[in-house]
Specification:
By secondary structure, the protein is mainly alpha-helical. Helix content is 89%, strand content 0%.
């Protein structure tokens, strides 16, 4: 059990380090789409640790008049939409970057 926890923590730290390195590289190369992507991914990772407390508080207070399953489904859907948005921004940014380099190459 401790080995699995240790491996999980190591992978988590490595993932966060890679995201920070991605932000640094995008900032150095003025790649705005990559900067937005990596920032959104870091925010999603941070939110994944904050959200359980948020969900518990919302479910205990019964602030919404919906079932627990529906609330969690909507919450997960919002997270997935933000993640998909981040990837779409990255893909569009890469396409624009490669299109401009390809246009400069053919001149």
């Amino acid at each position: 059990m401790y080995l699995i926890t240790a491996v999980y923590i190591i992978i988590l730290i490595a993932f966060i380090v890679l995201l920070v390195l991605g932000i640094i590289q995008c900032a150095k190369n003025s790649f705005k789409a990559g900067l937005i992507f990596f920032s959104m991914m870091i925010l999603l990772k941070a939110y994944s640790y904050i959200s359980p407390q948020f969900i518990n508080r919302m479910l205990q207070s019964r602030a919404f008049d919906i079932s627990i399953g529906l609330f969690i489904s909507i919450h997960n859907l919002v997270i997935l939409l933000v993640e998909i948005s981040a990837y779409v921004i990255l893909v569009i940014g890469l396409y624009n970057l490669w299109s401009s380099k390809k246009a400069n190459f053919h001149r």
